[in-house]
Every structure is written in structure tokens, then in C-alpha cells.
Amino acid sequence: MRIGIQLECQEAIDWETARRVARAADELGYDSLWCSDHVYSQRADPDRASVDPFLLLAVLAAETTRIELGTLVTAVCFRPPSIVGRMAAHLDALSGGRFTLGIGAGWGEGEHRAYGLPFPPARERVSRLDEAVRLLRALWRGGPVDFEGEHYRLEQAYCHPRPRNGDLPLLVGGSGRRTMRIAARHAEEWNVVALTLESWTEQDADFRRACEEVGRDPRSVRRSQVSGVLVGRDERGLRAHLERVADRIPALAGREPERAMASLRRRGWLVGTPREIVDELGRRAEAGQDRMMLEHHTGGDLQALELLAAEVLPEL
To answer: Which of 58, 255, 274, 277 is most buried (most C-beta within 10 Å)?
Structure first.
């Protein structure tokens, strides 16, 4: 089981705080560092900033030395996939081959509408995703590229610089049947968000069937999940971490701690002592999960990252 860190929708986090978290994750031994892709706050607060993930990851590539970097995930309608492919290739070069492009169909209708971006029905967005990943593969593997699809077209396109290894790893995020088939056919990694172990097992069974339908061994695709985490050495430590998280997630503010923690568990968060989290991750690994991306919800406060690194990572 690999453990990565996701910056909390890169919201309300300044550049120096992002650098600090990235350096800590790199030095503490985490597997990867991820940024989601949103143009404004997903916490129902329009005054909270949301940093562009490609700009942020370019900065963090220079601040780190070994940790994998990636988007989790970029929405297919935000930018033309040809431009995304070029940006991804540059991040691959900047990071010395440590970048993974995570891409999905997108879901935030409000932010698409606010910025004048297309937000077609789900069926079309998934169709665009399928074309986008095929276009990206063609662009990364050489040129000139001619591509004629229903939604995208390239004429004699090149990608400079070329990826270091002649291609880039793709992560496809999403739980719909058609999205799973796209991941099964084209991606190195498939990702879903905040599921309980029981829900994960059901989704993973669907994904393995999708792999069988396209003739691919499910074991050749990394299967991962994004989840929040609440950790403490004891009950007092758990409550203290909950207070710090609640400062940045308004829906948790003022809630009775036990009920809040029970609600987070039902939403797929990892909640408990380091030993309890090790045991839960072990069960998830047995169920087929290869990687867990843990959301970092406390800004420049690194207590949870340090505790997990000290007492959870060595056990994995």
C-alpha cells in the first residue's frame, strides 16, 4: 500500500504553506503529492482562493526531489487536451520524470458556467474524456500528430519537450461504468473518492469486470482512492485534530465530536489511532487497493503528517 498526500483542493493555502507541506511530504517519505483542479472554492465560500494546480505543481517540482506529483484530477472541459498534454510534458521535465496526469470528466457545473466553460451532459463529458486520453497518448508518443474526433481535432501537432520515457503515466478518476472502461483501456491508475471499504469492494469488482471486457489484466492497473484522515495517539489527540480540521471545513464546526467522527467514517475517512489506521489500510490492501491519497486539511499545521509518517508509514 502506497500513501500519498492531497493538498486540500489547494484552497486557502498560500504559496509558502504549499511549499512547506510539499517539502515535509517529500522528506517524511510519502509516496506522492496531489492537487485537485478547481477554479474556485469547493467549500461554499467564494472568498477562498483556489490555486491553479499546474502552476502550483511547477513550483513544487522545484521544492521536492523524490516524491511523485500529480493532478487529482483535472476536468476535461477546463482546457483543450492538447494544451494539457503540453503542460504535462513540461511538468514531467521540470520534475525529472515524477509527474502523473490525473484526468476525469469533471462534475462542478457552477465553476464551469462561472468561467464560460462548456459543461455538456455527463454522456458527452465522458465521450470527451475518452477522446482526450487517446489524443494525449498520440501527442506524447511522437509527432506530427493528426487526430480527428467528434470533439477534438489536431493537425500536424507536436509536443515539445517529449516525455522523458516517451510517454506519461495517466490516472483516470471516476466511478461510472464508461469511465471505468476508459481507465481500464488507457490508464496506469484508476482512482475514486472517499469510499468505505464495503463500497470500495463493490466498485473494485465493477472495475475488474471493465478490465476483463477490454482484455486487460486488472493487476496491471494501480487502483487508488482519495480519503480524508483524522488521526490521534488517543481520544484527546483525535479531538484535537478534529478541531483543526473543523477550522477549515465549515460543515464540521460546532458538531459533537463523536457524531462528527462517526459521520466522517461513513463518508470513507480514515479515523483513529495510528494502529487503527494501519489495520484499516491493511484490510484495504487485501481488498485490492494499491494507493491511498490522504487529504491534508490543516494548512501549515503538519502534526498529522508527522504522526502518520512516524507510526503508520513504517508499518506499510
So the answer is: 277
